Amino acid sequence: MSKEPAALLKEYLAKINKGEKSAQEVLSAVGGWMKESGDSLKHKIEIEVEAAVKRMGFAKKSDVDELAEEVAELRKLLKVKKEAPKDIKKSTKKAAKGKSK
Which residue ranges make up each domain of the chain? Predict the structure, then answer.
C-alpha cells in the first residue's frame, strides 16, 4: 500500500459508504498498513542511526562486548604465563644469557 494515509482512508470510507467493505475489513486493512509502515520506518531509522554512529566514530555495544571478551581471554593467557613454574623461568633465563655471550 503505497498511497498516502489520507487518500487511503478516504478510499476506505467511500467503500464503507457504498457497502463494498465492512468497517471490520477496513479496520483490519488499516491496522495491517500501520504495522507494515511502522516496521518499515523502524528499519529505516535503525539504518540511519547506525550510519550516523559510524560517521561519528562511536563503537556499537556489540563491538565493545566483543573487545571485552577478547581482553578477558588475553588476561587469562597472561595469568597462565605469569604462573608458570619457577624452574622453567630460570632455565629460559639461563639459556637466554648463554646465547647472548
Answer: 5-84
* pLDDT digit string, tens, across residues 12-41: 788 888 887 777 887 888 888 888 889 999
Residue 21 CB partners (closer than 8 Å, separation 6+): 12, 15, 29
Amino acid at 96: A
How much is the pTM? 0.45
Q: Which residue has cell 547506525?
A: 50
Find where cell 507494515 sits. Answer: 36
